[in-house]
Amino acid sequence: MTPPPPTTSLSFTLWNDDKPTTIILLHGGFTCRLEFALILPHLSDFHLLVPDLPLHSASRHIKPGTTDHSAQHVAQLIRSHAHGGKAHVVGVSMGGYVAQCLALDQPDLVLSLFVTGAAPASGTRLFMAQWPGLTYYTMKMMVGWVPSWLYQWQASLLGLKLDIELIEDMKENITWEVVHDMFPWILEFGLDDVRRLKVRTLHVAGAKGDDIGMMVRTVEALRSRRTDRGDGSGGFVLREGVHGWDMQFPELFAGGVGAWVEGEKLPGEFERL
Asked: Are 148 and 164 in contact (CB under 8 A)?
C-alpha cells in the first residue's frame, strides 16, 4: 500500500506530546474529531492524535473517502507523528473499519486495536450499506434538515452529549460522496477478515444499537486466529450503550481505552462475550 503524498495530509489535533504512548482516535461516519471532545480530558496520560478523516470537516478536501484510502492517510499520520512510528488505534463505527483496514494492510504500525460498532455488517446496518441512497436521505432527514438545537435535544433523549459545533459539522459532512465511498469496503469485510487480524484486538458493541449476535460470531473469529497467543483479544458489550456510545459515556469510553492500552482490567460496565 503506497502512502499518500504529504501535500494531502489529514487535518488533525495533537495532545499531550510529552507522553510516551500514542493513541490515535478515528471518528465515525458524518462526525469529525469533535466527537472525542469530552473524552480527551480523560486520556491525559497518553499522546493523542485526533484527525478528521477524508471528506469530513477540515479534511473534506481529501478524496476519495473510501475505507482503504482513509487507512492510507492514517498510516501516514502514524509514521509522521506517533511516538516510535506506532500507535494504539481506536475507532468508532466507520473509524473502526478504517482501523481494521489499516491493521490488515500494515500491522507493523498498530500496537493494538480498540474498535466499537465495527463488526462485519449485518441486519439493519447491512441493509443500509446495501442501499446508500436510503442512508443519505435518512441522515438528511434526521440531522441535515432539522435545526441543530432540535437534533441536539433528540440525541439527548438517548443520552448522547452532542455539542452544537459538532452537529453543525455533521450537517456539512452528510454528502453523497461520503455515503458513496464509505460502504463498499464495509460490505466486503467479513469474519474471514477478522480472522486475518494479526494485532491485539478488542471489539465492543452497544447492546442498544449494535447486532450482538454478530458480535458473538466476531469474538469467536478473533479467538480462532492462529496468531492469538492469549493477548486478551476478544469482545465486550455495554448493555446500556447505543451505537455511538462514546458520545453517551465519554468518561467510561476513555476508561476502557486507557485500561486496554495499559493491559489492565476493563471497567465493570464492560461485559465480556
From this structure: yes
Q: How do residues 185-212 score in pLDDT, each as one tens digit?
A: 999 999 999 999 999 999 999 999 999 9
DSSP for the chain? -PPPPGGGPPPEEEE-TTSSSEEEEE--TT--GGGGTTTGGGGTTSEEEEEPPTTSGGGTTS----HHHHHHHHHHHHHHHSGGG-EEEEEETHHHHHHHHHHHH-GGGEEEEEEES-SSP-HHHHHHHH-HHHHHHHHIIIIITS-HHHHHHHHHTTT----HHHHHHHHHH--HHHHHHHHHHHHH--HHHHHH--S-EEEEEETTTS-HHHHHHHHHHHHT-TT-SSS--EEEEETT--TTGGGTSHHHHHHHHHHHHHTPPPPTT-EE-
Cell of 127: 441493509
CA distances (Å), origin 116, targets 18, 30, 79, 121, 235:
28, 16, 24, 13, 9
Phi–psi pair at 267, nearest 5 degrees:
-55, 155
- 69/101 Cα distance (integer angstroms): 10
pLDDT tens digits along 227-268:
545 678 999 999 999 999 999 999 999 999 999 999 999 999
Q: Whole-prediction pTM value? A: 0.94
| Residues 6+ positions from 61 with CB-CB distance below 8 Å | none
